[in-house]
């Protein structure tokens, strides 16, 4: 998951490829209330399992068990997270919120028992929608309207004394919205939600939730209110309308930076044709300043419903059911096949266990009807949105000793009658028939599925900014290394990065896998090429050296002017002339002729 990831794993999706088909089944215990069929998935802290809940008269029903991983048993914060989710869910009763049946303790850990949902996460459905596998903007917005109904209920929930609980989900995302095959929508995972009445403070600097759907105030670690959940729905409105992710192929660090700078992508500039009213709704829902955002989930819901009403109204459950059943038919078929196999193994195993356990086992289970020895095959209820197993009252142990007495007693009476009451008879008595001794039945060998170790998956993509998706779920890092359930299914790896051609690879996770892949630069379009050419020309102009100035013409050399020679006094006419500054001699008159 995957994204799963930074998320808290919640009610598992049986059709997801994270399903651990090879998980070892729980040891057979006919007295336990819950029998684990298989592990559905695990996140950083949680394990989610499909189980059968058993009751009187052979009643059984599929449920989902969510429990913290064993290594967190000694960590109070982890246990508190689960108890917090249980307390919150116990107060909630709404058709668009996943139902919690009970919470019990096993081996010192709390276990949450939830309703089993047959469907897909909205994240998986959106991925199929992006890929063109049917659906429409109206169907996607109708799903979000039902999620808003759940949020409005949670945000306005009160305590038993009528005091507002001021509940905030804090992790609203497509991964925590389940769409069932009968068209119902359920909001999941209140594990990191916060009630004002509970100590829900988060350690300083620790961000909980999914970055791509966080509001700026949540990234900043500021005090939150219901408008943070409204922002997350606004991001999903953006994605349904644009038919793409809002934060396209950007690293988590880049997304956080833009959120901190309040640089939110504008639906009106997404490059797709979108109704002006929906652009207005999306801008208001994703406003960076929460004071400019919708004040409540109800306010956003009313605007969305009014928008859909102008376009033939919100979609019905039946329309949503047709959408998901068509878009995810292959996933549904694979999930049914896996579940039916585990249910058949469970039904056969427990019927035989009851058969050999005798009266004490039946009494311990509280079963009172023992008249029928017939067995009914498992009914998975696959087409009803749930699964149910209804075994009739199991066959009780055949009491062989009454039949043995029926054979021995008449023979003994006959012997007594012959030897005592008629001794004079010359009839030789026949030897008594050997008594039939009841033999204990041989316990059948119950086949156990072998425990198969998960595969180690190591992926690295170049460039470093590339984002990887496995089966539609964004991997949390590049490079990525982690364990995945071993299976023989075909998985899809997609790698994307800005400026590069996307790369798709088909993988089989039947053994450890290590891949290093590089993306090829994408060829620019004609418009991009022209823009690049113009930019290059502008850059060339900026880089060109300035023109050289012509050297100034040399000045004509000035004539060397000789210093005038002056006759020194007392020399007489030894030097009869003087030379002026122009070098011209001037004879002195008094010296002419001397």
| Unreliable parts | 1-24, 196-206, 357-428, 436-450
Strand content: 15-25%
Number of strands: 18
Kindly give the count of domains.
Answer: 4
From N to C, what is the helix and strand string? EEEHEEEHHEEHHHHHHHEHEEEEEEEHEE
Largest sheet, strands/sense/barrel: 6 strands, antiparallel
Q: Using the coordinates shown, work out and report the CATH topology of the largest domain.
A: Transferase(Phosphotransferase), domain 1
In the CATH hierarchy, what is the architecture of the largest domain at level 2? Orthogonal Bundle
Please report the number of helical segments.
12
CATH superfamily of the largest domain: Transferase(Phosphotransferase) domain 1
Mean pLDDT: 74
Rg of Cα set: 43 Å
The level 1 CATH classification of the largest domain is: Mainly Alpha
Walkthrough of the structure:
With 594 residues, this protein is α+β, with helices and mostly antiparallel strands. The chain has 4 domains: 1-117 and 329-397, 2-Layer Sandwich (Phosphorylase Kinase, domain 1), CATH 3.30.200; 120-327, Transferase(Phosphotransferase) domain 1 (Transferase(Phosphotransferase), domain 1, Orthogonal Bundle), CATH 1.10.510.10; 455-518, Immunoglobulin-like (Sandwich); 562-594, no CATH class. The chain is built from 12 helices and 18 strands. The chain has helices at residues 76-90, 122-130, 137-155, 216-219, 227-242, 252-260, 276-285, 297-309, 317-327, 329-365, 400-421, 526-543, and strands at 34-42, 46-54, 59-68, 100-106, 109-115, 119-121, 177-180, 185-187, 388-390, 455-462, 467-470, 473-474, 480-484, 490-496, 503-508, 513-518, 577-579, 585-587. Strands 1, 2, 3, 4, 5 and 9 form a 6-stranded antiparallel beta sheet that branches. It has a 4-stranded antiparallel beta sheet with strand order 12-11-14-15, with no helix packed on it. Strands 6-7-8 form a 3-stranded antiparallel beta sheet. A hairpin with a 2-residue loop joins strand 11 (467-470) and strand 12 (473-474). Helix 3 (137-155) runs antiparallel to helix 5, helix 3 (137-155) packs antiparallel against helix 8 and helix 5 packs antiparallel against helix 7 (276-285). The chain is elongated and about 160 Å long. It starts with 33 loop residues before the first strand and ends in a 7-residue tail after the last strand. 32% of the residues are buried.
């Amino acid at each position: 998951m995957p994204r799963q990831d930074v998320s808290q794993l919640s009610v598992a999706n049986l059709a997801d490829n994270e399903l651990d088909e090879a998980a070892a089944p729980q040891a057979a215990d006919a007295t336990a209330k819950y029998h684990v069929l298989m592990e559905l998935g695990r996140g950083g802290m949680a394990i989610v399992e499909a189980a059968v809940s058993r009751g009187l008269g052979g009643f059984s029903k599929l449920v989902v068990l969510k429990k913290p991983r064993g290594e967190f048993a000694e960590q109070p914060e982890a246990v508190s997270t689960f108890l917090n989710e249980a307390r919150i869910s116990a107060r909630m009763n709404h058709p668009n919120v996943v139902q919690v049946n009970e919470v019990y303790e096993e081996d010192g850990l709390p276990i949450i028992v939830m309703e089993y949902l047959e469907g897909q996460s909205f994240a998986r459905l959106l991925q199929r929608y992006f890929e063109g596998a049917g659906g429409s903007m109206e169907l996607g917005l109708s799903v979000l309207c039902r999620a808003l109904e759940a949020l409005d209920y949670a945000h306005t929930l009160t305590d038993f004394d009528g005091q507002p609980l001021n509940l905030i989900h804090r992790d609203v995302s497509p991964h925590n919205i389940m769409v069932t095959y009968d068209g119902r929508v359920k909001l999941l995972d209140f594990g990191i939600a916060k009630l004002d009445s509970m100590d829900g403070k988060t350690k300083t600097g620790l961000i909980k939730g999914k970055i791509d759907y966080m509001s700026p105030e949540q990234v900043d670690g500021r005090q939150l209110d219901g408008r943070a959940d409204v922002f997350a729905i606004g991001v999903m409105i953006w994605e349904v309308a644009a038919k793409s992710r809002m934060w396209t192929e950007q690293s988590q660090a880049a997304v956080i930076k833009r959120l901190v700078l309040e640089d939110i992508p504008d639906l009106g500039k997404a490059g797709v044709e979108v109704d002006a009213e929906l652009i207005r709704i999306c801008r208001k829902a994703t406003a960076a300043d929460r004071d400019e955002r919708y004040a409540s989930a109800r306010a956003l819901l009313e605007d969305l419903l009014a928008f859909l009403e102008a376009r033939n109204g919100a979609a019905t459950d039946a329309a949503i059911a047709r959408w998901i059943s068509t878009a995810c038919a292959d996933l549904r078929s694979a999930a049914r096949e896996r579940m039916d196999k585990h249910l058949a193994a469970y039904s056969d195993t427990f019927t035989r266990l009851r058969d050999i356990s005798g009266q004490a086992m039946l009494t311990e289970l509280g079963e009172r009807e023992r008249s029928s020895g017939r067995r009914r095959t498992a009914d998975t209820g696959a087409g009803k949105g749930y699964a149910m197993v209804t075994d009739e009252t199991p066959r009780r142990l055949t009491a062989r000793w009454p039949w043995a007495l029926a054979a021995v007693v008449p023979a003994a009476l006959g012997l007594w009658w012959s030897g005592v009451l008629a001794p004079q008879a010359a009839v030789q008595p026949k030897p008594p028939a050997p008594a039939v001794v009841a033999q204990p039945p041989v316990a059948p060998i119950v086949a156990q599925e072998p425990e198969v170790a998960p595969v180690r998956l190591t992926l690295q993509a170049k460039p470093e900014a590339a984002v990887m998706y496995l089966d539609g779920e964004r991997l949390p890092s590049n490079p990525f290394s982690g364990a995945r359930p071993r299976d023989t299914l075909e998985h899809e790896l997609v790698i994307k990065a800005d400026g590069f051609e996307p790369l798709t690879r088909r993988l089989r996770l039947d053994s450890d896998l290590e891949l290093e892949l590089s993306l090829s630069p994408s060829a620019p379009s004609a418009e991009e090429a022209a823009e690049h050419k113009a930019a290059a020309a502008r850059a060339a102009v900026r880089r060109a050296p300035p023109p050289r100035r012509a050297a100034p013409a040399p000045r004509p050399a000035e004539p060397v002017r000789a210093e005038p020679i002056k006759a020194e006094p007392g020399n007489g006419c030894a030097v009869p002339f003087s030379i002026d500054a122009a070098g011209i001699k001037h004879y002195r008159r008094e010296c002419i002729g001397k």
